[in-house]
Amino acid sequence: MHLTELLTDDAALAELGQRLARHRVARNRTQAELAKEAGIGRATLQRLERGESVQMTSLIRLLRTLGLLGALDAAIPETIAFPIAQLERERRGERQRVRTSSDDPAAKEAAPWRWGDEAEPTR
Fold first, then answer.
1. Ramachandran angles phi, psi of 48, nearest 5°
2. Residue 66 to residues 9, 15, 20, 59, 70: CA-CA distances in angstroms?
């Protein structure tokens, strides 16, 4: 099964868990052995292999132990290289944050402040 945006969160976790279990078995390690080597609890490894949610550090420790941590670099690249964006970054420097419309001082002045729970006035 391929991991795509069409999968539910549960389906993606289940697939990742099955893949991790296959890597563990291919290395001829029991859950207890691999968990100890990775510095995580056996129950944590069992949850991972069942496709349940665990802390990110546990996943990173397990991937490092299995020699798969570098695969995250391909999955989540440092930046996305769009040629036009690259030219803009070189011209202005690397962006530090994204401005939303609520950050725009002009937008704040245009709309009156409200608590948010008032009903809209009827006309």
1. -60, -50
2. 23, 17, 9, 11, 10
DSSP summary character for residue 102: G
Q: Residue with structure tokens 């725009």?
A: 104
* CA–CA dist 65, 62 (Å, integer): 5
Cβ neighbours, 10 Å, residue 24:
22
Question: Which pairs with CB-CB distance under 8 Å and at least 24 residues apart come from 46-50?
Answer: 48/16, 48/17, 48/20, 49/17, 49/18, 49/20, 49/21, 49/24, 50/14, 50/17
pTM to 2 decimals? 0.63
Encode pLDDT of 57-75 as tens digits.
Answer: 999 999 999 999 988 888 8
